[in-house]
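Contributing new records

If you add data, match the layout below exactly. Sequence lines come first and carry their own label; structure lines follow with theirs. Keep one chain per record. Anything else will be rejected by the validation script.
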Amino acid sequence: MISAMSETMTAEAVLGISPVIPVVTIADTGHAEPLAHALLAGGIRTIEVTLRTPVALQAIRIIAETAPAMIVGAGTVLTRDDLAAAQDAGARYALSPGGTPKLMKAARKAEFPFIPGVATASEIMRGLALGYSVFKFFPAEQLGGVAALKALAGPLPAAHFCPTGSITAAKAPDYLALPNVLCVGGSWIAPPEKVQAGDWAAIEAAAKQAMALKPVA
């Protein structure tokens, strides 16, 4: 059963931790702790661990226990059971590629920071009606990227976003310059091949570069 956490952060606070949230897929629990410490060494204090592998929940638990300075979140949360399991594993927040009313209501009832995914104005409006104001815009580049988010800002000024999907280090500043974007999600910081190779130095360097990203003038 989902229950409210002590010292729960708001979704807005979660997305304000870093200009980039690393989106990672962990296939080996042995990579969880060194990955978290590499990101922390690079200045990044949050991570989205996608629930796409059998060990994802265990990886979240390891990060929560061995790297308490890291605010660990769960990604690819599709059901209420996913949400409960992520919280039980130690996740501090959750994200989804979409957002069913049942899932969004469960997260609101649990007072657990949840960032539902949206792709259309109608989905954003449904989220706003349920009390949400922060959304994952996914897949960002395929949906029109920066231009789409600019267009949505006019009719939906209450909505703010974490765009994710095919965003690169080169494209990120254009997104971060938008007033309705709080941060971006990116897999380039800790791509699967770097994680599998244990190239923690490269991941730390990429994290430092991400923390230095500034919006374009």
